[in-house]
Write a structure and sequence with these properties.
149 residues, 19% strand, 5 helices, alpha/beta
Length: 149
Amino acid sequence: MVVGRRQPVAMPPGTSLGECLRAIQQLGTGDSVFITDADGRLVGVLTERDIFGRLVGPDVASGVDLDAPVEGYMTTDPHTLRLSQTVRDALALMQSSRYRNVPVVDDDLKLVGVVRQVDLLKFLAEEFPEELLNLPPRPHQRMEQAEGG
């Protein structure tokens, strides 16, 4: 079985910050906009963390210029996954870097999708249904007395 990947929200370099924010709001597909060059190669990503850290943080003294190019706010050279990498690789990257969305690129570094935490959870639930369904709600909880009458 293969983890499902979603179609990313991609914009070209030079797109205004305002357009990127509107795309995130309108499309409701997550909290990231991926910036790709004319060949579809990933050059950066504007994440929710970028937005809150750079636009809402304490260093922002005045209004933000929403017409400014996104390059001034995005993360350049983001971590990515290749199509050949495993679910374990995706989980490790998400855990170590605290990512919720990870871009997936091909061998030419062209953006081909995005894997989100929910995609991995769905994969694991479908791949290991018995293990998940047979777990008690709180596996480490110990009852002090028997339940019931």
